[in-house]
Amino acid sequence: MLISVDPNDSRPIYVQIIDEMRRALVLGTLAPEDPLPSVRQLAGELRVNPNTVSQAYRELERQGVVEVRRGQGTYVVQASANGSQRRALARDVALRSLRDAHRNGLDAEELIQAIRSASTSHHKKDAR
Amino acid sequence: MTSPLPTSLHSSELAVTTRALSKQYGALRALHDLALQVPEGAVYLLVGPNGAGKSTAIKILIDQVRPTAGVAEVLGLNPQVHPALVRANVGYVPEQLDWGYGWMRVGRLLEHHARYFPTWDAAYANRLAKSFALKLDQKMSTLSKGQGRRVHLVMALAHRPPLLVMDEPTDGLDPVMRDEALGVLIDHLAQTPTTVLLSTHHVSEVEQLADHIGVLRDGELRAQMPLDELRRDLRRYRAEIPVGWQGTSMFGDAVIRRVTTRNEVDWTVWGEESVVAGELVGAGAMVCESAPLSLHEATLALLTQEIGR
Fold first, then answer.
1. Which pairing describes strands B90-93 and B163-167: parallel, antiparallel, or unpaired?
2. For strand B14-25 and strand B69-74, is the pairing parallel, antiparallel, or unpaired?
3. Where are the domains of chain B?
């Protein structure tokens, strides 16, 4: 499973880990009954404080996405990839893009048009 | 109104505290009224320019330096009263590598060091030495600065102390070894409950590891807080202002960095975002951006702020 965190992102690192796990669920790279990497393993890979990973796992457990099985580890329980989670993910991406657009002096309409035209040329390229 | 930078934590379980700690070297004031608070289990980052008093503070904690006034408490013990007990429970990586054992080979030095620590884990020490690419039969006097630092890291970690005190632990390490050392430290923390107090000039290296920060300037604590708080409440605001704007001195010392042009302000301000933005808007400025700072930018701002007197 590929997940990454960015120290320059405005979201706290534990939130980034939660978001990445939810993204993996929506994309299907994580499915129910899959184990999450151990705290030690993920902290080592991401080079973050193990407490931060624990915090993210605790929050995911509280949200009912994963459960801790004693002596075995943490497992995904929640089936996902439903419409509402995809919409939530899209909303997050949209908000990030909008903030970036505003920072560059663009308004929402200009951004939407640019996305449409970029997406069209992207598809054309794929078709070739 | 915005509040001043916090210098006191709301944590009850503290692994390290100092109260009214001062150190005077003749006319030179190295530390003044220092109230360090390192919560149990924290990774506490002590930052400050050279000569700010970081090493002096650290050495007082292990009784290598005696304070002029005030008192330190390390794991519930006063290091001046229980120096041996404190040192037995602290893994210390000194800033200056000073062996006095140049003729010894690395392996022999580790064995020698182990005698002082009942909790020494020899198998772990060997694994650490291997991770750090140390040769046990190499003479200490022939080690590079980076290799010497790695030997110190092994000596500090292998007895799994409840407290690690590290003064510039990555100084002299190449980028690959810095990353390795970070990985080793993270793995250590995942296995062994440890409080870490570390000083460094390279804050971006440990940004994802640290959870508390203390900013030391001229022997005084400028700020002390959880890093989440710093990330949330120290922000850079860009706002457009009308010509002849009256608010140029708003917020006083809560503005850590103040760049004001004819039609724009670019300020780094300490305070709750909604309050700061609200007051800017209330004063007639149009806020275009409010962005958090990287740890590097934040510490630089705090260390270069011109403090009003």
1. parallel
2. antiparallel
3. 14-228, 233-304
Q: Residues A71, A87: one domain?
A: no
The answer on A104 and A71 residing in a single domain is no
Q: What is the mean pLDDT of residues B294-308?
A: 87
Number of domains, chain A = 2
**Helix residue ranges, H only, B132-272:** 145-157, 175-191, 203-206, 227-233
What whole-number distance in Å separates Cα of residue B299 and Cα of residue B309?
21
Under an 8 A CB cutoff, do B186 and A13 touch?
Answer: no
Class of domain B14-228: alpha beta
A70 and A106 part of one domain? no
Whether A116 is in a domain gets the answer yes
- Residues 6 or more apart whose CB falls under 8 angstroms from that of B120 comprise B113, B114, B158, B159
pLDDT in tens, A33-89: 999 999 999 999 999 999 999 999 999 999 888 999 988 899 998 765 566 777 777
Q: Is A107 on the interface with B (CB under 8 A)?
A: no
What secondary structure does DSSP assign to B31-44, as a single string? EEEE--EEETT-EE
Residue holding tokens 């054992």?
B101
Task: Write the ipTM.
Answer: 0.83
Beta bridge partners of B297: none
Q: Does A39 touch chain B (CB under 8 A)?
A: yes
Sheet of B163-167: strand order equals B90-93, B163-167, B195-199, B43-47, B212-217, B220-226
> Which two tokens mark A69?
């099985």
pTM of the model: 0.87
Q: Does residue A68 sit in the same domain as residue A92?
A: no
Report the alpha-carbon distance of residue A113 to residue A119 in Å, rounded: 10
Domain extent, residue A109, equals: 83-127
- Beta-bridged to residue B87, according to DSSP, are none
- The enclosing H or E element of B239 equals strand B234-240
Nearest to B6 by CA among B292, B221, B207: B221
Whether A43 is in a domain gets the answer: yes
Q: Are B149 and B176 in contact (CB under 8 A)?
A: no
Is the pLDDT at B3 greater than 90, yes or no?
Answer: no
**pLDDT score at A88:** 76
Q: Are residues A71 and A98 in the same domain?
A: no
Same domain, A88 and A57: no
Q: Which residues of A touch B292 (CB under 8 A)?
A: 10
**Which of A10, A43, A49 is opposite residue B211, by nearest beta carbon?**
A49
Task: Tell me whether A101 touches chain B (CB under 8 Å).
Answer: no
